[in-house]
Design brief:
633 residues; alpha/beta; Lyase, Ornithine Decarboxylase, Chain A, domain 1; TIM Barrel; Methane Monooxygenase Hydroxylase, Chain G, domain 1; 4 domains; ten-stranded mixed beta sheet; eight-stranded parallel barrel; binds pyridoxal-5'-phosphate
Length: 633
C-alpha cells in the first residue's frame, strides 16, 4: 500500500506504536475512543475516568494508581500455573508461593496479598524484623509459610519461633553459620522445634542486571564448607530433622529460561546430597527471578524474558522431577519467592504534562539587502540541501552557526541577526531530519540528530522519588499517553521531571523493535490536561525513592473494578505535605512558622507591609506548608 495515501490514524495504530498488547499481560487495553483502560475478565475502565474521580476527591497529579484486581489476578495466575504444571507432569509434591515483602512493602499491597492469597496459603518472605512484624500482623491462615532470610538476631529468631507456636511454618534460612547457635539455644529455651533452611551459594551464572546475587562472590549463602559445618552441628545436636528447606536465589529479572533450568539442576545436587547426609529436606525454595516482560519483546534481554509463566512453572517442575527421579528422591514442596512478577503490573504512575519546549524555528524574516553575509550563506545551504550530501550540508550549517556566535561575541553581528542565524540553523536541521526519514541508511554522525531536536515535555513528577530505577540502573518501563490515542501523535519528545536535576529525565523508551530515544506524543491542547502513564511500576519503585529537591511521596489511590464496569476507591493516601518532607530533614514546621511571623512583624514595624498584608502572608505560608510538594494548579 502506498504510504502517501496516509490513512486515518486509528486506535490500532496507537496499540502498535506503544506496544500495549505486548507488555500489558491483558491487564490494560485501549477503548474505541482512544483511552487506556484497566481490564479484568469482565470489564474495562478508562484510567481517565479514574483520574476524574480522583480530582473530585481532591487527589491531584502525580498519583500512583494501584488496581487491586490485577494484584489478585497475578497471585491467581502464579498459583494456578504451578498447579497446572504439577498436574500435567505428574509431580508428586505441591507448590507454595511466598511474597517477598521488600519488593513493595506498602501496607495496602501486603494486606491485599495476604487477603487474596489466603485461598492458596500464599505466605511471605521477610528479610528483617520490621518485615517479619508486617508479615505476622497480616497473615491469618495457619500453615502459611514465612521464610526468614537475611541476618537474624535473637529478637528476630524469637519472633519466628513464636510464629511457629501460632501455627505458621516459619523457616529460618541460615545465611551465615553464626546464626545457628542462636536458633538452637532459643528454640530449646522456648521449647519449639524450629524449621531450618540453608541458603546455598550457587555457581550458575545468570545474565541480566542483578546477576551478582549468584556466583562465588555473592554475599549471600553458605559455601560448601560452611554447609558441612551446619550439617555437622545439627547432627551433633540431634536436630538434623529440623533441616527441611533448601534455599537458592539466582537473582531478580532473569531473562533466560536456560539459566533458571541450570540453577535448579545445581540446586537438586545439593538437595540430593543433603538428604543423603540425613537432612529431612522436604521443601525446595527457588527464590525470585521470575521476570517481567517490560518491553514485550519476549526475548532474552534485560527488560524482557524468553519464557512465559507456564513455561517457567513447567521447566521448574520438569527439571526437579527428572533430576530427583534419577536420584530416587521424593518430590519436595516447591516454593518460589516471586516479587517483581507478583506486584509489577498492579501499579501505574500517572502524571500530567505542565509545559513543553520545542526546538522549532519561528517564522524567518524575508532576506534583506544589508543582511549579514553569514545569513546569506546559511540561506544558500538551505536552498541547496541535497539528499546525497546531507553530511556536508550539516557540517556547513554547523560551521556557519558557530561562526555567527563567534562574530556576535566579537561585536561583529548584532543580537537580531544572531537570532535569525540560530533560527536558520534549526530550520536547516529540521529539513535535514525530514530528508533522513526517507533514506535507507543514515550517516553515523547524523544518527542523534532527531533526538537533539526532540521536544521536551515537562512532567509533574520526580524521577528520583517515583521511578528510581530509571535513574539508577537504566530500567525501562512502558510509557504512553493514556488518552487521545485515536489521534496521531505528531511530536517526538523526551520527558523531563520537575526536579532541577539534569538526570531527572526519561530519554530511553521501549520501541516497536528496539529501544527508542524519543517517545511519540501529542501536541498539548489549550485548556485540556495531557496525561502520561508509566506502567508496570509496582515492583521496587515505591520505597526506593529519595527526597530529591524535597519532592515527597505522591498521592496513592487503590481502586477495585467491579464486573458491571463501575469501580470503587478502596483506599486513598494523600502524599507528603511540604511540612512532612521538611520534618523528615529535621526542620520543625512549627518554629518555621514562628520565625516567619516574626519576620513579617518586623516588616510591619518598619512600614514595608501593613498588618493586614501580614495576616494574608501568614495564611498563604501556612497553606503552602499543608499543601502537596508537586505542581498544583
Ligand atoms: C529480592 C528477592 C526476591 C524477589 O525477587 P524477584 O525477582 O523480585 O521475584 C526473592 N528472594 C530473595 C531472597 C530476594 O532477595
Amino acid at each position: 500500500m502506498a504510504k502517501s495515501q496516509n490513512p486515518r490514524w486509528t486506535v490500532k495504530d496507537s496499540a502498535q506504536l506503544y506496544g500495549i498488547d505486548r507488555w500489558a499481560n491483558d491487564y490494560f487495553g485501549l477503548s474505541d475512543d482512544g483511552k487506556v483502560t484497566a481490564k479484568t475478565l469482565h470489564t474495562q475502565v478508562p484510567l481517565l475516568d479514574i483520574i476524574e474521580g480522583m480530582a473530585e476527591r481532591d487527589l491531584h497529579m502525580p498519583v500512583i494508581l494501584r488496581i487491586e484486581n490485577i494484584l489478585d489476578a497475578q497471585i491467581f495466575r502464579l498459583n494456578e500455573a504451578f498447579r497446572q504444571a504439577i498436574d500435567t507432569l505428574g509431580y508428586a509434591g505441591t507448590y507454595r508461593g511466598v511474597y517477598p515483602i521488600k519488593v513493595n512493602q506498602q501496607a495496602q499491597v501486603v494486606e491485599e496479598i495476604a487477603d487474596f492469597g489466603k485461598r492458596y496459603q500464599h505466605g511471605f518472605e521477610v528479610g528483617s524484623k520490621p518485615e517479619m512484624i508486617a508479615a505476622l500482623s497480616t497473615l491469618e491462615e495457619p500453615g502459611s509459610l514465612i521464610i526468614c532470610n537475611g541476618y537474624k538476631d535473637e529478637e528476630f529468631i524469637e519472633l519466628g519461633l513464636q510464629a511457629v507456636k501460632l501455627g505458621f511454618i516459619c523457616f529460618f534460612v541460615i545465611e551465615t553459620p553464626t546464626e545457628l547457635p542462636i536458633i538452637i539455644e532459643r528454640s530449646k529455651a522456648l521449647d519449639v522445634k524450629p524449621y531450618i533452611g540453608v541458603r546455598v551459594k550457587m555457581t550458575t551464572k545468570v545474565s541480566g542486571h542483578w546477576n551478582t546475587t549468584s556466583g562465588d562472590r555473592s554475599v549471600f549463602g553458605l559455601t560448601t564448607t560452611q554447609l558441612i559445618e551446619v550439617v555437622d552441628k545439627l547432627k551433633a545436636e540431634n536436630m538434623l530433622d529440623c533441616l527441611q528447606l533448601l534455599h537458592c536465589h539466582l537473582g531478580s529479572q532473569i531473562p533466560n529460561i536456560q539459566d533458571i533450568r541450570n540453577g535448579i539442576a545445581e540446586a537438586c545436587r545439593f538437595y540430593a546430597d543433603l538428604r543423603a547426609e540425613g537432612a529431612a529436606l522436604s521443601y525446595i525454595d527457588l527464590g525470585g527471578g521470575l521476570a517481567v516482560d517490560y518491553s514485550g519483546a519476549e526475548r532474552n534481554e534485560e527488560q524482557s524474558r524468553n519464557y512465559s509463566l507456564i513455561e517457567y512453572c513447567e521447566d521448574i517442575v520438569d527439571t526437579l522431577k527428572q533430576t530427583l527421579d534419577q536420584h530416587k528422591m521424593p518430590h519436595p514442596t516447591i516454593v518460589t519467592e516471586s516479587g517483581r512478577a507478583t506486584v509489577a503490573y498492579s501499579s501505574v504512575l500517572l502524571f500530567n504534562i505542565l509545559d513543553t519546549n520545542n526546538f522549532e524555528p519561528t517564522a524567518l524574516p524575508e532576506p534583506k539587502e544589508d543582511d549579514h553575509p553569514l545569513l546569506k550563506q546559511m540561506r544558500d545551504v538551505r536552498a541547496e540541501l541535497n539528499p546525497r550530501r546531507l553530511q556536508e550540508n550539516y557540517n556547513d550549517t554547523h560551521y556557519y552557526r558557530n561562526e555567527a556566535r563567534e562574530q556576535f561575541r566579537r561585536g561583529l553581528m548584532d543580537l537580531r541577526s544572531r537570532s535569525v542565524a540560530e533560527n536558520l540553523f534549526l530550520d536547516i536541521l529540521h529539513a535535514i531530519t525530514a530528508l533522513l526519514e526517507t533514506m535507507d541508511r543514515v550517516p553515523q554522525d547524523l544518527e542523534g540528530l532527531k533526538q537533539s531536536l526532540a521536544d521536551i515535555y515537562y512532567g509533574n513528577f520526580s524521577l528520583f522519588q517515583s521511578l528510581p530505577d530509571i535513574w539508577a540502573i537504566d530500567q525501562q518501563f512502558p510509557i504512553m499517553p493514556i488518552h487521545r490515542l485515536d489521534e496521531k501523535p505528531t511530536r517526538e519528545a523526551v520527558i523531563a521531571d520537575i526536579t532541577c536535576d539534569c538526570d531527572g529525565k526519561i530519554d530511553s523508551f521501549i520501541g516497536e523493535y528496539e529501544t527508542q530515544k524519543t517517545l511519540s506524543l501529542h501536541p498539548l491542547k489549550e485548556d485540556e490536561e495531557y496525561y502520561i502513564g508509566v506502567f508496570l511500576v509496582g515492583a521496587y519503585q515505591e520505597t526506593l525513592g529519595d527526597l530529591h529537591n524535597l519532592f515527597g511521596d505522591t498521592n496513592v489511590v487503590s481502586v477495585r473494578l467491579n464486573s458491571d464496569g463501575t469501580y470503587e476507591f478502596v483506599k486513598e493516601i494523600h502524599g507528603d505535605t511540604i511540612a512532612d518532607v521538611l520534618s523528615y530533614v529535621e526542620y520543625q514546621p512549627q518554629s518555621m512558622l514562628v520565625n516567619y511571623r516574626n519576620t513579617a512583624e518586623r516588616a510591619v514595624r518598619e512600614g514595608r507591609i501593613t498588618a493586614r498584608e501580614r495576616t494574608e502572608m501568614i495564611k498563604s505560608f501556612n497553606a503552602s506548608m499543608q499543601g502537596y510538594t508537586y505542581y498544583e494548579k
